[in-house]
Every structure is written in C-alpha cells, then in structure tokens.
Design a protein that fits this description.
- A hairpin with a 2-residue loop joins strand 3 and strand 4.
- It contains three helices and four strands; from the N terminus they run H-H-E-E-E-E-H.
- Helix 2 runs parallel beside helix 3.
- It is an alpha+beta fold.
- It has a single domain, classed as Nuclear Transport Factor 2, Chain: A.
- The protein starts with a helix and ends with a helix.
C-alpha cells in the first residue's frame, strides 16, 4: 500500500511539474506574441512592460544619446547626420518583418528561449532569431534577441545597443 501511495504521489508531482513547465512556456510565448504583434520595427516605441528592466535601460540610454547628439549638432549648426540607430534591432534584418510565428520554446527555471520564424514578404525573405526571456517579477519579459542567422549589425539586440552606446559623439 505504501508503494502505491508513493507511486501515486510521484505521478501527481510529475504531472504538476510538467504542467507548470507548459504554463511557463505558454506565458513566454504570449509575451513574444504580444511583443511582435505590437512592435513596428522602431525600438523607440517598444512596450516596456514586455521587456526586462536591463533592456529597457539600454533602450532609454540609446534614445537619450540620439537626442543629445541631434541637439549637439543643431547647436553647432552642423549639417552632419546625428548618431542614431537605424533599422530593426529586434530582428536581424534591417527592414524588419511582415509576419512571424513561434517555432519552438524552451523554459528552464527563470529563463526561456523562443525560436521565432520571421518573414518579410516585400523582400520574399524568411529567417529565424532566438528570443531570450527572463522571469522578472513573476512575468516573462524579453531580455535579448539573438541574431542566429549572422545577418544583423551585431550578435543581438543588446549587442547593437551596447555598440551604439560606446560610439563617441
């Protein structure tokens, strides 16, 4: 009888564990889906509720740097182009995407990885990127997008932002 109770307890615990992993994966997918459905290829307009605090701070710093450099050049009455990030930094293709679909999700503790297939119908082009999410305040938030096809201006969204922030005005 003890074996049956132990086996039953193990079975119930296994079901709860695997169902919680599925819920975590679904929540990560929901975050990615919400982000890319609303995102319009301009990092300045991202929904900050869907990204980590660290990524949000990098974006805020990049925006501030762009504004500072534009003002600096205006004050100098320069016709030079100010420092700015151009193109879509949340995918590895400058022109961005016209559609996307989630292909694969892995959730492990407080980190998740979601492979997203993108398409740009205007250029008849498809590619994949890996979205990294972290569990922040019990909510999945996007922390980075890895450019798995080696086509982006860097290795990832954070890499592009970091490189921009290192540029001299």
């Amino acid at each position: 009888m003890k074996k049956i109770k132990s086996l039953s307890l193990f079975f119930v615990a296994s079901i709860l564990f695997f169902s919680s992993c599925a819920v975590k994966s679904n929540d990560a997918n929901n975050t990615v889906d919400s982000f890319f459905n609303a995102y319009k290829s301009d990092f300045r307009t991202v929904n900050k509720n869907l990204i980590t605090k660290a990524l949000s701070e990098k974006i805020d710093s990049a925006i501030a740097k762009e504004k500072y450099d534009a003002k600096r050049l205006k004050d100098l009455q320069s016709t030079d182009k100010p420092l700015m990030i151009e193109g879509d930094i949340f995918t590895s293709i400058y022109e961005g995407y016209t559609s996307f679909r989630i292909k694969q999700t892995k959730a492990d503790g407080k980190k998740a990885s979601v492979v997203v297939a993108f398409e740009n119908k205007n250029y008849n082009f498809t590619w994949e990127n890996e979205v990294i999410l972290l569990l922040e305040n019990n909510t999945w938030r996007i922390d980075d997008v890895l450019y798995t096809d080696k086509r982006g201006a860097g290795k990832s969204t954070k890499d592009v932002l970091s490189a921009f922030l290192k540029l001299n005005s």
